[in-house]
Amino acid sequence: MNHQLITSDTQLAAFCEQVAGKPFLALDTEFIRIRTYYPHLGLVQLYDGEHLALVDPLGITDWAPLQQLLTAPDMVKYLHAGSEDIEVFLNSLNCVPHPMVDTQVLAAFVGHPLSCGFASLVETYLGTTLDKSESRTDWLARPLTARQCEYAAADVYYLLPLAEILTEKVQEAGCTQAAQEECALMVQRRIKQAEPSEVYKEFSGAGLLRSQQLACLQKLAQWRLEQARERDMAVNFVVREEHLWKVARYMPTSLGELDGLDLTGQEIRCHGKRVLAIVDECRNLSDSECPPAVENVSDHPLYRKTFKAIKARVTALSETEQFSPELLASRRQMNQYLNKVWNCKAQQGEPELLSGWRKPLLEDLLAETVDEIQSGTARTPDA
């Protein structure tokens, strides 16, 4: 397949002018994210059905023409499994493709697993087997090889015909509006930034800690996230989560005690004194100065039975509607709903299962299931 390798601002501006006004644009990115907090952009692939370009970001200083293209209201942007790509565009170009349609989401509405891969769909619908041998390549290494470029180009070359087929199938299923809502929701999830003071609630074992210990975990988790963002390091390369939890649990007073809690030598050398200072800040806090206890939804006495009942009914409903059960209600979404029902964790807005296209399908079903479990009248699958 023919493609243009763009390595300068002039070439990028010319390409964007060439495809401006087209109705569709296939997008993809290649990036590296191993030890870093933010993804590092290695390549941008663009295809309008006629012109295919691979944009080398290492030679670009003016992204304005592409930013305008990505946000053009009359051009639909197609991605596949674009959640991470959204984050890449946001962090590297300070914009998000809009309007955007994800072909993985479209496929889920016509019965494919929510995690269905691009190569599998291309083979199923287009009869082409893609070469995925470059999927783990170093996209920041230069020069790019011919094989790398062919691999990257294929990811957008086959995206538009696949999108056309899946869009038609979704329309036939009467799910076009729901699919559009789901794509928009995916974008909102990805661009939402974690609040540093709240991330401690997601630590495994947070619900086991007492007041001062929990305050310590809150401060440690906030410090770690801020360090990760500031230094562009994956959070567990600052200090591992289980090590922070141990520090909060035992509240050590010396570097030797940190070593006894299995913190690595690097963690102690780089952060030991700061970690101990945070511990010391929390040691004498009054209960009123500490965050309230974290209630994990999975610790609720009715959690296991309720979760299984909801999952069984969601699966049955998805078979009726003929789309992926993971799309209708994921584990995260079911837990989010039960958190709301049992007031385990404060959350803003309605649970995803009670909003948008899911609400008319699930609102009564979920309420009835919870009521039956709590009243002891439900029949659930065997444990």
User: How many separate domains make up the residues?
Assistant: 3
Mind summarizing the main beta sheet? 6 strands, mixed
SS strand fraction:
5-15%
Helix fraction, binned, reads 40-55%
Overall shape: flat
Q: What top-tier CATH class of the largest domain fits best? A: Alpha Beta
- Which structural class fits the helix and strand makeup? alpha/beta
Kindly report the average pLDDT value.
95
Instruction: Give the count of helical stretches.
Output: 17
Low-confidence stretches: none
Question: Which radius of gyration do the C-alpha atoms yield?
Answer: 24 Å
CATH topology of the largest domain: Nucleotidyltransferase, domain 5
CATH architecture identity of the largest domain: 2-Layer Sandwich
Task: Characterize this entry briefly.
Belongs to the RNase D family. The chain is built from 17 helices and 6 strands. The chain has about 375 residues and is α/β, with parallel strands linked by helices.
Task: Characterize the structure shown.
The structure is a single chain. By secondary structure, the protein is an alpha/beta fold. It contains 17 helices and six strands. It starts with a strand and ends in an 8-residue tail after the last helix. 33% of the residues are buried. The mean pLDDT is 95. It comes from Morganella psychrotolerans. Exonuclease involved in the 3' processing of various precursor tRNAs. Initiates hydrolysis at the 3'-terminus of an RNA molecule and releases 5'-mononucleotides. Its main location: cytoplasm.
